[in-house]
Amino acid sequence: MTHKAIFFNLKRVGDDGEKYLEASEKLKAAGVEVAFVDEGINNSLVPTDTNFDILAVFMDSAVDAPTIAALPNLKLITTLSTGYDHIDLAAAAARGIPVTSVPGYGENTVAEFAFALILALSRKLFQARDRIRVEHKFTNDGLTGFDLAGKTIGVVGTGRIGKHAIRMAKGFNMKVVAYDVYHDDAFAKEMDFAYLSLEDLLAQSDVITIHAPYLPSTHHLINAGNVHLIKRGAILINTARGAIMETAALVSALKDGTLAGAGIDVLEEEAEMKAGDMSVDADLVAMPNVIVTPHNAFNTREAFLRILDTTIDNIVAFVNGAPINVVPPPKQQPPAPVPLPTPIA
After folding, report:
1. CATH of the domain at 36
2. Among this protein's residues, is 219 annotated catalytic?
3. Does residue 295 carry a catalytic annotation?
């Protein structure tokens, strides 16, 4: 039996991905044909030809209930990402469509990018570059930075990426504190760090780096109610998901000096910015002590190949009847209790 897999917006990371998938012997042996659409998919961008049974997407697609309903032959949704909040899991489960993801591909990749932002901010690299290229002055006045050694870094989320960030921080001789709902006490003992409450982490950290998943429980985890608990003069890094940090609270903390700087690879308003509306978050982007990058932390050649290899394995395993890396469907809510009849007096 032949299966057809459509990959949406694969060119966002170059042309090599299409060639890599077309040349995959694993896909060929499993009878999987591949095709490509240059843009993402959502309920207003459903292709005319819906004769495919495998849908492969990035985070910039929105696979909601109407989109799923518009694809009558769909049997598998696979996302080329670790996160899957862009997919309506309930709608997929209602159709019996499994959803697979890439649980790990960029643990070191994203952590390295976080430290690139930390170093750029701590040593004022962009201001130093502009001193030469824009101001045409060879002077280091006002460019004093700070050492990472001896500083406290607060790691929010100690999953795979957070653990890599902790190892890197130890390499810089930083003191590490962490916040996570789930504590890995063995790892904490191995790496000699302590888990704290979020409030204590904010108060003690010179650098805060966010590596938590985006869930209803982490929406605006850092917000107007707790942002001013942050140690004055700290810097904040977010390479996780934009909505974990309330944008208005971030801007407020930067303006009043609570935060000395921020390195932001993800924004709440990414969809608008990708659509060309660069007016959103204009205040944030224009700040000289803020570095905003376009959701690029994952984007290395090595990480992309790991994404493609895992996605190929996900598709082949599904075709062979033994799906892997399946995202659990949402928990079913128990039915509402039926009220008992009112006793007759």
Report:
1. 3.40.50.720
2. no
3. yes
